[in-house]
Amino acid sequence: MLILICNVGSTSLKFRLFDMPEERTLAESKIERVGSANNSIFAFKNFNKNLEFEQEKVHVPDYGTGINLFLQYLTDGEYGAIASVDEVTAVGFKTVHAQGVSGIRLLNEEVIQAMEKYISIAPLHNRFYVDAIRKFIEILPDKPMVGVFETAFHLTMPPEARTYGIPYEWKEKYGIQRYGFHGNSHRFITNKVREISGKEEFKLISCHLGGSSSITAVKDGESLENSFGFSLQSGLSHANRAGDIDPYILVYLMKEEGYTLDQVLDDLTKRGGMYGISGVSNDLRDIQKSAEEGNARAKLAIDVFCYEIRKFIGSYYAILGGLDYLVFTGGIGENSVMVREKVCTSLAHLGIKIDLALNREGPKERFICAQDSPVKVLVAPTNEEIGIARDMFAFFN
Ligand code: ADP
Questions:
Q1: Nearest 5°: phi and psi at 61?
Q2: How far apart are CA 210 and CA 309, in angstroms?
Q3: Which of 80, 206, 209, 368 could cysteine-pair with 213, CB 3.0–4.6 Å?
């Protein structure tokens, strides 16, 4: 069964075609700078033919043009991985958030409208996904479009972890509660621990640290809590987005300092997080370099980020009643020796004994703890796409 996964960014489209259940990747493609006239970059890889190319200055003014371009190469006689799109069973998306909808769902008009209802709380995701999904439906009207929602893995969160101390009717009427996100990545990591340990029962804290970061407490394979709340503008500090803040910061800025809601929201999503604190960059590599050169705000940004990570790990340790596995994944989790070292060395009292040499180098997936560490610490690359393809295979079989 051929399953096509499409990952939608605000200015990018990524595609991967899987042959399931063998989990073979047949083709992969990426279009960057979607929307800029004659200046997009198109990359395509056919794994069977071992053929790969990248082309610059391509004209991809919108998602529809990008999807058509990819499908044209996918089915091309010379470059293509398949003879016709008829061979594809369904198209899958890592959908983020929708009012009253989670799990794995066929993306019909009702579900798409539920996603539109939450555009204001997932502004960096929902608008773009809805646009790309509608274009896909226009181009391939007979193919099922499927969303695997980022909230799905967290459906097991108990009511006490979900519920805010707000008027109860806000929860009932508008669905205002903690949802948790990054579910596809945290589920992939949970399955990885299952596979490595050979166990079904374990206490795990999964740290997905990247441009957007979150931490999940997992008990016996089920999510108990995630650091994101109602929206993705919460939890840890992100690249450009503020994490958890006191809502009265907005009240103060708007009532006393004359900010408009749009200004505050723009600042919180574009000028917040690691970028906001450091004033240097939204990329940890730049921030680290600047901190090493003596920039105090860059150092503070790193200190805040690592402090927040420790705080979540500590509270999840309490909720889980102990810890067996601590896993780092995502662009920062997989690559930042410094963040892992800072976090783990300060948590030795929880039984986390990092091995500094193993932390510094080794294969992409490896344990980075001492042999006698009570908590096993793992670095593992995430693979959300394969998780989605597995879910879709199960959905159609
Ligand atoms: P997104 O959440 O947007 O998918 P990623 O998971 O790719 O982002 O993570 C991006 C972050 O990973 C950036 O802050 C970048 O600095 C960080 N990163 C990537 N490689 C390294 C590295 N070798 N060392 C430290 N940080 C890194």
A1: -75, -20
A2: 12
A3: 209
User: Could you report the per-residue pLDDT of 212-238, keeping only the tens digit for each?
Assistant: 999 999 999 999 999 999 999 999 999
Question: How far is the C-alpha of 351 from the C-alpha of 392, rounded, in Å?
Answer: 38
17 and 34 Cβ atoms separated by less than 8 Å: no
- Confidence at residue 37, expressed as pLDDT on a 0 to 100 scale: 80
Where does residue 351 fall: left (phi above 0), alpha (psi -120 to 50 degrees), or beta otherwise?
left
Pocket test for ligand 1, best of 96, 208, 288, 335 (most atoms within 8 A of CB): 335
* Cα 196 to averaged position of ligand 1 atoms, centre (Å): 25
Identity of the residue numbered 346: S
84 CA → ligand 1 middle, Å: 36
What is the number of the ligand 1 atom nearest to the C-alpha of 284?
A: 16
Q: Show the tokens assigned to 298.
A: 């860059």
How far does residue 162's CA lie from ligand 1's centre (Å)?
29
